[in-house]
Write a structure and sequence with these properties.
Strand order of the largest sheet: 1-5-6-7
Shape: elongated
Helix content: 40-55%
Number of helices: 8
Distance between the termini: 63 Å
Strand content: 5-15%
């Protein structure tokens, strides 16, 4: 047999037995510590995804019985072990309700954004925010030219004896600082312009993970593993949801902001639990 070190691997040569998205989700769930709780035949919905907002440790589920009715809460595992932190006690019912609402909002927003971007080829550059960037670049070019002229003028004033060498150094330093700031802004705007004009950033294949659940009415563990990275609990009335593909989502929102400036502000991360 050929030694494994000499194997040649060619990925994606054959059709996968298990679709890649399914494989990735199973791998995620396998990696998370999700032991079945006592007297339960399944893993709790949010097991492995909840983190304490202060210490970063897992949140643990507990059940409280009052008047023959059971109530479920999550609290910090560090606190449970008596190693500090605080309970961060939060109702499971409210938590699930708010997570579902945010998931529904996020999916709708991404699906709408994709639909908006699908027509980007038809839009003139002026509608992509390029016109605004071009105006800023023009203003910056004029500003740079002005400070270069001022630096040359003050240098000539020093040669002519109008200002002293010390005065020249002070004035020149101030002009140089403003000139450098303008050049930095110019470089940033040029990069922004190139990104707006580029067509390479619109490969949003990852959005399929979200679109699969566009009509979701209830949370399910498979869905959580597909689109959520973690849920951070800061208090009983504040959580923060981190979705998978956060960098890609941010890039998409920057694209959309070029068309609809207020659209990207609609992203939700911090959630008030009511």
């Amino acid at each position: 047999p050929i030694d494994e070190a000499n194997w040649i691997r060619v990925p994606n040569t054959h059709e996968a037995i298990i679709p890649k998205p399914v494989f990735e989700i199973v791998q995620r769930l396998t990696e998370i510590d999700t032991r079945t709780a006592p007297d339960e035949d399944c893993v709790y919905m949010l097991s492995g995804f909840l983190r304490c907002g202060d210490c970063g440790e897992n949140m643990i589920r507990r059940t409280v019985t009052k008047k023959d009715k059971q109530y479920h809460y999550y609290y910090c595992s560090t606190y449970k072990r008596g190693e500090g932190c605080s309970s961060h006690n939060i109702s499971e019912e409210k938590l699930l309700t708010n997570v579902l609402a945010v998931v529904q909002h996020q999916i709708k927003m991404l699906v709408d954004a994709e639909a908006l971007l699908s027509d980007i080829e038809k839009l003139p550059h002026e509608q992509l925010g390029v016109k605004t960037v071009n105006m800023q670049l023009t203003a910056l070019a004029q500003e740079i030219e002005r400070y270069q002229d001022l630096k040359a003028k003050v240098y000539q004033d020093m040669l002519d004896g109008i200002v002293s060498r010390d005065e020249f150094k002070d004035i020149n330093a101030r002009f140089t600082e403003k000139l450098n700031r303008a050049k930095t802004a110019q470089a940033e705007n040029e990069a922004k312009r190139e990104k707006l004009l580029s067509r390479e950033s619109r490969g949003f294949s990852w959005i399929e993970y979200f679109k699969e659940y566009r009509n979701v009415e209830a949370l399910e563990r498979k869905m959580i593993a597909s689109i959520i990275d973690s849920i951070v609990v800061y208090s009983s009335d504040k959580i923060e949801i981190h979705f998978r593909f956060e960098d890609e989502i941010q890039e998409m929102m920057e694209w959309v902001a070029g068309i609809e400036p207020d659209y990207a502000n609609d992203m939700i991360r911090e959630v008030s639990v009511v």
